[in-house]
């Protein structure tokens, strides 16, 4: 079955470069027929995102700081001026001080804890609150990105594991709140990815190799696979799926121990 998103339009938040998971999702949605708008943060990222957006026939880019209410308000006002209604939002935003993603979790600072939870989790709530009025008429989909470090201790993930656990819980609560208006809220949980964000995690290369060798499919997730999952969730095919954490990790999450040859 070919899934179409023709006639649907939405906002992609979090593209950093062509290796970003958000970029893989954007490409897949564009190929399925969707119209896209993009956010970025700061001039440097804007210069990276602009040619990528143009390659997908998008000329709408807006600078957004998700820790600033006024910035978020302005972005959604601009989006509403372009499109009174939208069908989806992809929230691919997370941050933590990379210096605190080494060592012990117990040494997490209060400042970085608050900042990590604010950007990585609370921003989804702020985005959903502003997207909600633009989806009330026809329903829609809000997608975010998580990782299995939310519920299983992962080396060097530290406070991001707690932030992603909060994000997954927020996904469920938002799904319940917005469901009566036909708005689905889901999270995609890929395995380790060779992205800009993934590169700041200590031991990233070892983690990537370990999952590649031990996942039941003996492969890590690809941008294409994640993009396809996002298309399903945001299309009419996903109309009855909400509050879910969809794993796209080659099956790694089912394991209790490495494969016998790697013990």
Automatic annotation (TrEMBL):
The keyword Lipid metabolism applies. Signal peptide: none annotated. The active site is at 147 (proton acceptor), 157 (proton acceptor). It is an enzyme of class 1 (oxidoreductase). GO terms for biological process: fatty acid biosynthetic process. GO terms for molecular function: enoyl-[acyl-carrier-protein] reductase (NADH) activity. Pfam families: adh_short_C2. This is Enoyl-[acyl-carrier-protein] reductase [NADH].
């Amino acid at each position: 079955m070919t899934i179409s998103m023709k006639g649907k339009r939405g906002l992609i938040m979090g593209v950093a470069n062509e290796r970003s998971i958000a970029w893989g999702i954007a490409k897949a949605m564009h190929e399925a027929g969707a119209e896209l708008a993009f956010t970025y943060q700061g001039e440097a990222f804007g210069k990276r995102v602009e040619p990528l957006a143009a390659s997908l026939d998008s000329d709408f880019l807006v600078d957004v700081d998700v820790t600033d209410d006024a910035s978020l308000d302005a972005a959604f006002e601009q989006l509403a001026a372009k499109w009174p209604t939208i069908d989806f939002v992809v929230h691919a935003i997370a941050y933590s001080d990379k210096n605190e993603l080494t060592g012990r979790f117990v040494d997490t600072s209060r400042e970085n804890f608050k900042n990590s939870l604010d950007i990585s989790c609370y921003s989804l709530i702020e985005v959903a609150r502003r997207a909600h009025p633009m989806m009330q008429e026809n329903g829609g989909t809000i997608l975010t990105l998580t990782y299995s470090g939310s519920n299983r201790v992962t080396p060097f993930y530290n406070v991001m594991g707690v932030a992603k656990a909060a994000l997954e819980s927020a996904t469920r609560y938002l799904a319940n709140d917005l469901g009566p208006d036909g708005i689905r809220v889901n999270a995609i949980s890929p395995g380790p990815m060779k992205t800009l964000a993934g590169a700041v995690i200590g031991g990233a290369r070892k983690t990537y190799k370990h999952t590649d060798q031990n996942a039941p499919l003996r492969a890590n997730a690809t941008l294409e696979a994640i993009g396809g999952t996002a298309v399903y969730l945001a299309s009419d095919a996903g109309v009855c799926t909400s509050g879910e954490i969809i794993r796209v990790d080659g099956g790694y999450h089912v394991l209790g121990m490495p494969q016998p040859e790697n013990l």
